[in-house]
Amino acid sequence: DWIMRDHIEEAVQKIREQVGDEEVILGLSGGVDSSVAAALIHRAIGDQLTCVFVDHGLLRLNEGDMVMDMFAGKLHAKVVRVDASDLFLGELAGVSEPEQKRKIIGRLFVDVFKAEAEKLKASGQGHKGATFLAQGTIYPDVIESGGAKSKKAVTIKSHHNVGGLPEQLGLKLLEPLRDLFKDEVRELGVALGLPREMVYRHPFPGPGLGVRILGEVKKEYADLLRRADAIFIEELRKFTDEATGKTWYDLTSQAFTVFLPVKSVGVMGDGRTYDYVVALRAVQTSDFMTADWAELPYALLKKVSSRIINEVRGINRVTYDVSSKPPATIEWE
Ligand code: XMP
Fold first, then answer.
1. Would you give the DSSP letter of residue 247?
2. Please, where in the chain does CATH 3.40.50.620 lie?
3. Is the peptide bond before 326 cis (omega within 30 degrees of 0)?
4. Ligand 1 neighbourhood includes 209 CB (under 6 angstroms)
5. The pTM is what?
6. CA atoms within 13 A on the CB side of 115
7. What ipTM does this complex have?
8. Checking phi first, is residue 216 left (phi over 0); if not, alpha (psi -120 to 50) or beta?
9. How far, in Å, from the CA of 147 to the mean position of ligand 1?
10. Measured between alpha carbons, how far is 137 from 156 in angstroms, rounded to an integer?
């Protein structure tokens, strides 16, 4: 529509004025905000933008390839994919305490990103390398970091973010989504040609599957979890609610699978199995501060459970999490 087209044109002009002939780097995560920021900045300055996509090995099934297909493939943006999964999994080995895991992932992310930024500088793409760091900060993030969050007396979970990165890197900040609410960011994303599926995706935490594998993170667990979770999400997208005509993916605010590193006994054919358990989590919420567990149809739960147990060898039991927030949190760690 016209309003959106004007808005894009205005935003593009503003970015061009701010950046001039300098270069920009942006940490692409595959999430909505960084994706929309990348698409908008790319529209404005093309190859003056380099996206850095850090794969920490804790992404969902095929997520890395999908991000590359979209940004490098379809949009023809410059994207550097850094496969840091060995580094992350190595440092996480033997660590099971949730806060410690979060801190390790956050620190490594900053380290890897910084190293990549230095590398780009040294390789002399452009004359002096990037002078801007772009971030997909949106209006609610701006309010949150100034207000409510800092008043909180206890840290329930230390959030993975890249605060402090621009100073450490000596870069200027470029935040073209700073004045926008989530809905506006989504509309902008669609107007910029990003697929609806990407723009209306449920939120995914920075530490990724690292906080959805309880206790110690192992590659074996991550691989099982990725496959189980892909089945859950696929079925949520397939099942439609008759009353509203919406899919259960759209009717839930966030839905995912959690890996429990405990084994239980089962029976498969003539044999005994002794395998891992997963929990399905689906919530409805308007602000993620409180949340209700979603009353998913039994037919959907039944389909997901039987598919996971039959298709993912190594998992023989599926449970559904019926805890609200509070007192439970949405993520298990
Ligand atoms: P909890 O588990 O605290 O989660 O009820 C509330 C929302 O925040 C997301 N979440 C994170 N997002 N980095 C993020 O970017 C993080 O470290 C992180 N931890 C939790 C969670 O997925 C939910 O949407």
1. B
2. 2-199
3. yes
4. no
5. 0.94
6. 12
7. 0.99
8. beta
9. 18
10. 22
Do residues 188 and 148 touch, judged by C-beta distance below 8 A? no
Token digits of residue 132? 């801007």
Q: For 296, how many CA atoms within 13 A lie in the half-sphere containing its CB?
A: 33
Q: Name the DSSP letter for residue 212.
A: T
Task: Identify residue 56 by its one-letter amino acid code.
Answer: H
How many Cβ atoms are within 10 Å of 209's Cβ, its own excluded? 24
Q: Give the separation between CA 56 and CA 102, rounded to whole angstroms.
A: 13
State both tokens at 316: 């023989």
Ligand 1 nearest atom to the CA of residue 331, by list position? 2
Q: Whose CA is nearest to atom 21 of ligand 1?
A: 205
Pairing of strands 254-268, 271-284: antiparallel
Residue 265 has phi, psi (to 5 degrees) of -90, 140
Position 143 scores a pLDDT of 83
User: ∠247-307-222 over CA atoms, to 5°?
Assistant: 95
pLDDT for the residue numbered 150: 47
In this structure, which CATH number among 3.30.300.10, 3.40.50.300, 3.40.50.970, 3.40.50.2300 belongs to the domain 212-320? 3.30.300.10
Pairing relation of β-strands 49-55 and 172-174? unpaired
2-199 CATH fold: Rossmann fold (3.40.50)
Preceding omega of 327 cis (within 30 degrees of 0): yes
In a 3-state reduction of DSSP, which class is residue 213?
strand
Most informative mutation of 321, 330, 332 for ligand 1 (most atoms within 8 A of CB): 330
Both tokens assigned to 85: 């999964």
Residue range(s) occupied by CATH 3.30.300.10 in the chain = 212-320
Ligand 1 closest atom vs CA 291: 5
Per-residue pLDDT of 248-293, as tens digits, reads: 999 999 999 999 999 999 999 899 999 999 999 999 999 999 999 9
Bridge partners, 153 (sequence order): none
Ligand 1 atom closest to the Cα of residue 106 is 17
